Amino acid sequence: MAVVDLDTLGLTCPFPLIKVQKKMAELSAGDVLRVETDCISATENIPNWAQKMQYPCQVKKIGSGRWEITVTKK
């Protein structure tokens, strides 16, 4: 299992979601993608997409206007 960090700070949706989709396609089952974002829309769009893909996903606020979204590839 690998943990991969993806910085999407400064990007607005749909670009954080597009980067997550591309990076997840490169990962193996069991790998975890840890996304840092400052886009409030990404805190909804990425988990909604992850749910459709049946990937476990968690959102955690890590600062003022910043979140960490963790997506695990099944």
TrEMBL record:
InterPro entries from the UniProt entry: TusA-like, TusA-like_sf
Domain of life: Bacteria
Transmembrane annotation, as ranges: none
Domain UPF0033 positions: 6-30
PROSITE patterns documented for this protein: UPF0033
Family the entry assigns: Belongs to the sulfur carrier protein TusA family.
Protein name: UPF0033 domain-containing protein
